[in-house]
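Dear support,

I submitted the protein below through the web form. The confirmation email said the job was done, but the results page showed an empty box. After a refresh the structure appeared. I'm attaching both so you can tell me whether what I see now is the final result or a partial one.
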Amino acid sequence: MHPLIGRLIVNFVLCLICFIAYSSQIFIIWPWYGSALSVDLLKLLVPFNVLVGFLLWNYFLAVFTDPGRVPDAWKPDTHADGYEVKKLTGAPRYCRMCQKFKPPRTHHCRQCNRCVLRMDHHCPWINNCVGHFNHGHFIRFLFFVDLACSYHVTMVTKRVLSTVGGMYWDEPSSVELVMIIMNYVACIPVLLAVGGFSIYHFYSLLGNSTTIEGWEKDKVAVMVRKGKTREVTFPYDLGMRRNIESVLGPRPLLWCCPTRAPGTGLKYELSNKDGAPWPPKDSDSSYSNSSSTHNGNDDNTNTSSPWTYENGSLNPNLRPSNGQIQNSPRRRRIPGASSLPPYHPDYRPDDDQQATYEPSQILDEESSEGSIEENHAPDRANGHVRRGSEGYEIRPEGREEMLRRYLEEIGEEPDRYLRYIPQPDSVDSASDDDDVPLAQRREMIQQQ
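What the results page shows now:
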């Protein structure tokens, strides 16, 4: 998303908050109390403005607080508990976009183009990621939006009910009636949408999980039901009270006040001491954690990952996980052919020009593939069968080869007949004939 669009969304949210908060007080509540300051008016509006003030304060902090970034020189302590590893290889997590190690619960945001500590999600309404240092501000912002909108709807509804059975001077004016309708239209959808969103985030707060970790927990539950993995306890669930304290702070009286998030975001306390990885590995995976030994190398540059760790080059031991592809003879490289695609920086056209495709090689390779549907397959000696959406790949052949194959099919010898290739008339003879008159040309023909 373009930064300008993000700023426009933030300004739109601010305008919507101000419209709902202050249009109701100026055009609905103030005329209702006779456009005069009174104690009853203050009792009604002061709590509402306090809620609006906390709402705007937390919204400002959620927008402008850095959610947390990985320090440049940070490296995981592989001898301590609580560091996360790759799901397939067991090596420490590493971000190739940022060229940094990933602390626990850290993920790369494509919108912010960097890794975010304890990333929950990227929120377009605050034009920022929800991470470790602004997660509490975001939770408090949702909480005060729910309270302020509920107070607003109650306040406006009380004004509407006051006109029922009242005197004629209590009836709202045309401007007041229009503003009542507009406030209902603006506030009720916000209350329903943000309210449902808040319920999910409050539930995640009680379990000390983020939105991304919620998806992981759902995936693990499906894997457990299918018997692909054993049931693993979520490692960061410390209990309801401690889960809230890990985000809003250790003092319950200050949970509604903006405070700095506890901790550094680089390490988190665990509830399971068995050291089980999260998310758990699928038992059907073709990789094993036992193959990811570090061999005493702390930087983990040589692992069994499909990509060599941290050095940016391909793993020389990379092999396809599909057994049919791995053992397929069609995957054997023909001598002289380039193994790299033309767009690869190391591709050399000279190698491609030396590629030779012998029909006997192709026939031997195809004959070892097993039976394929003969009704839909082309000539096995000249066609290269490829399963999948690619269909058939036919190797190009010249006219001479096509003619030779046709003569062999009808039982003729290929070299028995000489092909006649008509040649165009010479330009000189055509020009001489054009100079002879028609009558003289007729006589010449008759004499012949």
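Response: this is the final, complete result; the empty box was a page-load delay. The longest helix spans residues 174-206.
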